[in-house]
Specification:
6 copies of one chain form a homohexamer. Chain A has 141 residues and is of the alpha+beta class. Chain A has helices at 27-34, 65-80, 98-110, 113-116; strands at 5-18, 41-54, 83-84, 120-128, 131-135. Chain A has a 5-stranded mixed sheet with strand order 3-1-2-4-5. Chains in contact: A-B, A-C, A-E, B-D, B-E, C-D, C-F, D-F, E-F.
Chain lengths: 141, 141, 141, 141, 141, 141
């Protein structure tokens, strides 16, 4: 086995505010669905992204972690840290949940897959240690 | 892709005592198999439960986390926190290990799957950061 | 030594939004002082409160932890979880930093010191694992 | 300053069961005081011990960490791991709380202070991340 | 379902130094590929290993955790703790990355699969909380 | 009390190699004192630095955290991350332990106390979650 297949994962953290709210519904209905999460609150979000592929025998790496770190910095941290997520334009038309955030981040990272050097296989968003959502991409559908 | 498939996870913690012991075996045999774990000891147990399904576009959620949290509170925390697990009736006839606890918790949560709002796909029980057992349900057999 | 002096600590977590902003200053000056923290963002805040006193030989406790937990639940969690802290009335006229939050929480807990059962000696507020502020009370001045 | 004064800390973890109970009180009174903690339950306990003294310029150390680790292994881990603390003879006549455990561990470690190589200045016992007790010794009285 | 299939995981930690370097490349090329990781540095490595199989109804266990712990102690901790990994003979001819370390550890553990008592299904190596590599074995190829 | 006194703390992490070794002693004596720590190994070091002073009522802060973060980045991270500490010139003549590292970092930060905006009162260096050294400055002597 010259080229074993592995998955590498990088994790970053950012601090942001959000509220769970569907603007096409009434305030009463939003409160009923989302409860206290309908109010503006916030989290120290943790995002993990994983790439899967064969190890390059010259480098010992699936992909260059420096590239993954740089792209996550640009596409996640610089976009979302110290922001009110409901006002971030590329998130704005969805209910900003851990689930939709995971899908939206997947799409931004996947758009740069060539630079990542290996296929994106997982995006996981933690709102806290207790609550998270993970997305393994559209091929899961 | 209008309804991406995701997995959401909630984590709770409870404190309980247990001992690894099979009442149908002799004390000597129990001690041989389980070593120090045959004595009464305890843990801050962590339990994670995951649900997998399509995101509801109206709510941005796979299932309402408030429901998952409430059901885990009722079926796990209120049942097991500050208990000696070997004396909990619905656990009592098995060797109380992380493995059997994961299966028993799966069965209690799965019995309420309709209320959970999405299929249960994982129960993971940590006795500590160092030791855990995970169960993905009877369909894995 | 029949009554050794100890310190007990309880920790809770809540999720909230805030922005660092002094309404009596111009937006430009606020931005200059607070940088990105001037924008609405949020955290999973952790608050630790400590009580110090002699151990009661009848109970083995400095104070009843159940009381401390209940009071922290009422005075901190129920007040601040899933809130935009700048809009909480008893916080509203100060710059909402980890420091001022620690002092405001101290004052709320200290007002119930009789119920706590032992003197309050520390309040520590973590905005994240990386950043915290601790207050040991007015007697430090 | 040739010999700066520092504090070094080592942390260990053990798993044990206990119940909060004062045998000289009635079961009703014990339940009233201790609530669910009166039942047999358990924790992954964490114990930290600190030594304070000048740095030895030959070794760069306040005391040899290998000695501290060995003594904590003998006096704490080997005594308490996978035990029901209420049945440990040197703990048995007290209510087994985080507070009394901290004092009892202090006494065992302090009895070996000569081997530790520097004065013991803190023992901290965590029943969980949320609850702890710390003892700075009889000189605090 | 008499024999549900579960996965158990044990985690250990060791401290070691390494540098990312391919001796068959020039120093300039190594620096270009690996950047600061080309310098000697180190980590508190965390390694998780998982076994998957049916629960033994007599023991309540997939495999005896004591065996897994002992084998990980021998094959990982005793081999790698407080070592400069580039000088460990069984690692020496590869670029010592999280990926190649995961594969090398897999091979050592898999060689003892009979003693482990259940099939090895995952080795995960964390260089830090932020960076990890996981390997699910040659059958993934 | 218009200006309560608080302590703020910032924490950073870096990865580095070191060995415990006193070059003025023989290899045999070094091995005897330091055991396995005499070999080249490494850690994900965590450093916490604390400042103590009155809260500025205009900013709600003891000192501007952005300044503390920047100075710790320059004086610690940029100096020590991905380095072999025994070869860092400003550390080189001491035994590189957690203790001496804490003192050396204190001196670098204290030299910039004017920029920090409040007195430095604590530097704590963790080699791991289990082992740390803390220094409260030369005034403790």
């Amino acid at each position: 086995m010259d080229h074993p297949i592995l998955t590498i994962t990088h994790r970053i953290e950012f601090s942001a505010a959000h509220r769970m709210d569907n603007p096409s519904l009434s305030p009463e209905r939003n409160l009923e669905i989302f409860g206290p999460c309908n109010r503006i609150h916030g989290h120290n979000y943790v995002v993990e992204a994983s790439l899967t592929g064969p190890v390059n025998p010259e480098t010992g790496m699936v992909a260059n972690l420096v590239d993954l770190m740089g792209i996550m910095q640009e596409e996640i941290f610089e976009q979302l840290d110290h922001q009110f997520l409901n006002e971030v334009s590329w998130l704005g038309k969805i209910v900003v949940s851990a689930e939709t955030l995971a899908v939206a981040i997947w799409e931004r990272l996947a758009a740069r897959e060539k630079e990542l050097g290996a296929p994106l296989t997982l995006v996981r968003v933690f709102e806290s240690e207790a609550n998270s959502a993970e997305y393994r991409g559209p091929s899961q559908n």
